[in-house]
Amino acid sequence: MIFAITSNVRHGAFLGLAMLLCMGSASAQMYKWVDASGKTHFSDQPPPPTAKPSQIKAGGGDMGGVSLPYALATATRNFPVILFTTNPCAGCDEGRNFLKARGIPFIEKTVGSDADVAKLKEAGGNGSMPFLTVGSAKSTGFQAEAWNSMLNVALYPTSKMLPANYQYPTAASAAPKPVKAGPDQAALRAAAAAQEAEKRRKEAAAAKPASSTAPPGFQF
User: Fold this and answer.
1) Is 58 helix (H, G, I), strand (E, B) or coil?
2) Measured at the alpha carbon of residue 39, what is the angle toward residues 33 and 43, in degrees to the nearest 5?
3) Contacts of 8 (CB under 8 A, 6+ apart)
4) How far is the CA of 196 from the CAs of 185, 189, 193, 201, in angstroms?
5) 58: which of 76, 137, 167, 214 fits an S-S bond (Cβ 3.0–4.6 Å)?
6) Distance CA 205, CA 192 (A)
7) CB 120 within 8 A of CB 131
């Protein structure tokens, strides 16, 4: 497999319009914020600038298991960031370090098998890496300017805001192997009980004295 560093980022008005349309589809979300008097509000409208920063959980799976600042959590929920990487890949290392330096929560998916490649292509990749998705926006190859543009349009904070205790999820295969189901314990117990019952039946049959066929009053 050849890992080239190319870019297919669409920028300008088209990318901005696409992102705005995506944001429109997510406008039904609920916002939580606290006013100056300490009263908590729930609304489908963004909080006013005077609202106290509200800590909410980031959506879209395990994103470190901690509360994120409001702006970062909202961007993460509306435009989740997924990074496809392989090893060795210098561009992948640069891209990963870039996202962490800016404080962007992301999920990393590794590509190392044919099944992984198939998942990469399903996501819109062409086989070259790193491959980044920010919501529906896509970029092949690491280019800091292009990635910054995608993240800015998605309203990710330009400076790092991640809590000190945040931990990035462990990188996992793009096409993880299905977990093999363990034996059905209830079925195993039922089978063992049936075997024990059959064993006892046979033992009882063997211990039962054989019936005599001699005429009445006859003795050997």
Assistant:
1) coil
2) 40
3) 138, 139, 140
4) 17, 11, 5, 9
5) 76
6) 20
7) yes
Question: What pTM value is reported for the model?
Answer: 0.57
What dihedral angle (degrees, nearest 10) is formed by the CA atoms of 95, 133, 64, 162?
60
Fill in the amino acid letter for 148. Answer: N
Q: How do residues 110-144 score in pLDDT, each as one tens digit?
A: 999 999 999 999 999 999 999 999 999 999 999 99
**Beta 67-68 vs 56-57: how paired, if at all?**
antiparallel
Query: Model confidence over 162-220: pLDDT tens digits?
Result: 999 999 999 999 998 876 666 677 777 888 888 888 888 887 777 766 555 556 665 55
Q: Identify which of 122, 42, 107 has the alpha carbon closest to the alpha carbon of residue 76.
A: 107
State how far the Cα of 31 lies from the Cα of 41, in Å rounded to an integer: 8
Q: Measured between alpha carbons, how far is 113 from 52 in angstroms, rounded to an integer?
A: 47
